[in-house]
From TrEMBL:
<feature type="transmembrane region" description="Helical">
    <location>
        <begin position="173"/>
        <end position="192"/>
    </location>
</feature>
<feature type="transmembrane region" description="Helical">
    <location>
        <begin position="36"/>
        <end position="61"/>
    </location>
</feature>
<dbReference type="InterPro" id="IPR044880">
    <property type="entry name" value="NCX_ion-bd_dom_sf"/>
</dbReference>
<dbReference type="GO" id="GO:0005886">
    <property type="term" value="C:plasma membrane"/>
</dbReference>
<dbReference type="InterPro" id="IPR004481">
    <property type="entry name" value="K/Na/Ca-exchanger"/>
</dbReference>
<feature type="transmembrane region" description="Helical">
    <location>
        <begin position="6"/>
        <end position="24"/>
    </location>
</feature>
<dbReference type="InterPro" id="IPR004837">
    <property type="entry name" value="NaCa_Exmemb"/>
</dbReference>
<feature type="transmembrane region" description="Helical">
    <location>
        <begin position="298"/>
        <end position="316"/>
    </location>
</feature>
<feature type="transmembrane region" description="Helical">
    <location>
        <begin position="272"/>
        <end position="291"/>
    </location>
</feature>
<feature type="domain" description="Sodium/calcium exchanger membrane region">
    <location>
        <begin position="175"/>
        <end position="317"/>
    </location>
</feature>
<feature type="transmembrane region" description="Helical">
    <location>
        <begin position="73"/>
        <end position="94"/>
    </location>
</feature>
<feature type="transmembrane region" description="Helical">
    <location>
        <begin position="131"/>
        <end position="152"/>
    </location>
</feature>
<dbReference type="GO" id="GO:0005262">
    <property type="term" value="F:calcium channel activity"/>
</dbReference>
<keyword id="KW-1133">Transmembrane helix</keyword>
<dbReference type="GO" id="GO:0008273">
    <property type="term" value="F:calcium, potassium:sodium antiporter activity"/>
</dbReference>
<keyword id="KW-0812">Transmembrane</keyword>
<feature type="domain" description="Sodium/calcium exchanger membrane region">
    <location>
        <begin position="7"/>
        <end position="149"/>
    </location>
</feature>
């Protein structure tokens, strides 16, 4: 029964997230914000809600900080697998697509964040007063994210969206967005609890369980939204959703670090180091997909490397 519960909750996460991404897209049509900002910040934040609330549940209700690291780092690698997989089947169409300049910058900022997590593990330095403490690297990660958002907000290099009539008013869109967001939060919390039970039943470490079960399940929104966006030819929004979600996921570590008062959120474990190393490598391979856009062979090679990186990260973490 527990596996059926997991499957049902995962399906609900997909459905709710797809609806939320639709309403964000409606807001996109009603505003003058850049496409990079809409896909890389707004849509990314929406599809990352499962990672956020499952991680907060892991530290506040389950006392499992390892589950948070596995969830975030595992989700990031899986997210990039979405790009890798899509490129294998749509590389010809991708060569003709237009991408915002900020996507490559976002990936570089992501690599900086990987370095911050590595430093936080081996050279922890905490700031704070009384019981409220936070790792210095968590603060730096937040600053890097805000800097990236600032650049994305003004990047209109990849905008080519067509005008589409939206019958809903902004107020109606916002109301629906709030309702589906609340539902997604509830389902995400339940998904975390089920994942913890599966980890205990299979005798998996919390980090591995987070990387496999939570990492995949909470990445389903990015997967669903990105496949649909590529299907309609919007590679720019698809890339923005993935790379933006990865950066937002690192912010989850910051929140968890502040809320977990029993110790530090950054745990030194072999599984975590595997996810860090392969995650950074996947980021570099994704940069290859962008920089080698005009060369189909380079795109295909980098896509395969992304997929291999994910398989190895899981295999070596077991």
């Amino acid at each position: 029964m527990i596996y059926i519960e997991y499957l049902v909750l995962a399906i609900l996460v997909v459905y709710l997230s797809v609806r939320l991404s639709y309403y964000v897209d409606c807001l996109d049509k009603k505003t003058n914000l850049s496409g990079a900002f809409i896909g890389g910040v707004m849509l990314a934040a929406v599809t990352s809600l499962p990672e956020l609330f499952t991680s907060l549940t892991a530290v506040l209700a389950l006392d499992q900080p390892d589950l948070v690291q596995g969830n975030v780092l595992g989700s990031n690698i899986f997210n990039l697998c979405v790009i890798g997989g899509l490129m294998l089947f749509t590389s010809k169409r991708y060569q003709q697509a237009t991408l915002s300049n900020s996507h490559s910058k976002t990936l570089w900022y992501g690599i900086v964040m990987y370095a911050c997590v590595f430093i936080a593990i081996f050279y922890p330095y905490e700031l704070g007063v009384g019981f409220l403490k936070v790792n210095l690297m968590s603060v730096l990660i937040l600053i890097v994210y805000l800097v990236n958002v600032k650049f994305m907000k003004h990047d209109e290099s990849g905008d080519n969206a067509e005008d589409v009539y939206i019958s809903l008013t902004v107020k109606q869109i916002a109301l629906r967005f709030i309702i589906f967001s609340v539902a997604l939060v509830v389902v995400s919390i339940l998904l975390t609890q089920v994942t913890d039970k599966i980890a205990n039943e299979l005798q998996l470490g919390a980090t591995v369980a987070g990387a496999i079960f939570l990492g995949v399940a909470t990445s389903l929104p990015e997967l669903s939204a990105s496949i649909n966006l590529v299907r309609i030819g919007n590679f720019n929004a698809s890339f923005g959703n993935i790379v933006g979600s990865n950066l937002f996921n690192f912010i989850i570590l910051c929140f968890a670090d502040v809320l977990y008062v029993k110790g530090g959120i950054y745990v030194n474990e072999p599984q975590v180091l595997n996810l860090l190393g392969f995650g950074a490598f996947s980021m570099l391979a994704t940069l290859g997909v962008i920089y080698g856009k005009k060369h189909r062979g380079a795109v295909l090679l980098c896509s395969v490397l992304i997929l291999v990186s994910y398989v190895l990260s899981i295999a070596l973490s077991m």
